[in-house]
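Tutorial handout. Part one gives the primary structure; part two gives the three-dimensional structure as tokens.
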Amino acid sequence: MKYNILIVLKPAFDPNAGGVQRTTYKMSGYFKRKGHATNVFSFSNQHHAHQEVAELYHAQQPNAQFEKSNHLDLSRLIDEIQPDVVINQMPYEHSIGDTLKVSKDKYGFLLLGCLRNTLYAVVLNIDPYFKSLVPKPIQPLLNNTLGKKLVLQVHKAKHSKDLKRILDTYDYFIMFGPPNLKELKYFVGNYKLHKTHLIPNSILSVMPELPPKEKRILWLSRLSYGQKRADLILPFWKKIVNELPEWELDIVGDGDAYNDIKSQIEVEGIKRVNLYGKQVPNEYYKRSPIYIMTSRNEGFPNTIIEAQSFGCVPVVYDNYPICSWVVKEGKSGILIPPFDVDQMAKEVVSLALDKSQQNKLMQAALKNANEFVIDNVGEKWISFFDNALKKLKS
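Part two.
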């Protein structure tokens, strides 16, 4: 059966701008290739990339989901195309969910909300949340174990309310993998868990064999101090630069930390570091045998499976539950205790100098990546549509 599918975004539809947009692009391309009518509605009124995977519609006014007329644009689009399936990539934006629910009650389509980040972002990183939530004058009073437990309970109550509202609004809450179910139960217990379904992110393809590799270590992401922990890149490299005199570090990405890192490299004379800014990543994955990730948290780390698809071994901080599900420790990558720079340096040096182990893990990375190829993941989406719509109409 062929479906009429609508995917809803808040940001501009540009597959090179972020993980949600890339995921939407890959999903749309697969659906279209299989003959399904594919539409994307963005709440952003500008900065959309030219693409051929979907019919693109967007809000006319700025202020995204805060502008009532933009919601009317979305409602009118649904009136026009009458989709069978609507996928909201932004389920935490409750105003969008409310608009979609009104249309769902009118047309009876399958309404899905997709998780796009770990639910444990605060649980595993309480200090930044504590500083943002607690007023500075009383931080010294609460900056202790008991105070942080109290702040965590406040977060848990709020997040539980958000998640229950999502489960109430959508027919299904789509999550990446089994670790997300554990996260969800922490917040909502057994509340409407029957409305969850697991489908991972995808990659377009996997190289049929290992490409030629150079002596390069790759860091590739948005250069930010918060989520991506770009402040850990150079401390790591300085620990190994003399132990690996023939190797180079490639940093690919742009962001608020770019100028600071560039300045530090120049002032300290740090050798063999290449800053490339934002680039199409494929050639960097292809030539690098080792990929490091320093992130504080991720939803589903696209760059890990992208790296694996080019036979690039991920060495990453095991700081969010889905990480150890995607990276099989010692088999298709290496997991490091959170933010242990010394341990990451040690593991990377060992891997760089052990050609046999390096080749073994690169081959395993390619094999692991095949699980996430869009043809495999796309089949899961269509099979899910088939079964969920049957239940909905029965």
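Part three, for discussion. The mean pLDDT is 94. The chain has two domains: 4-200+373-393, 216-372.
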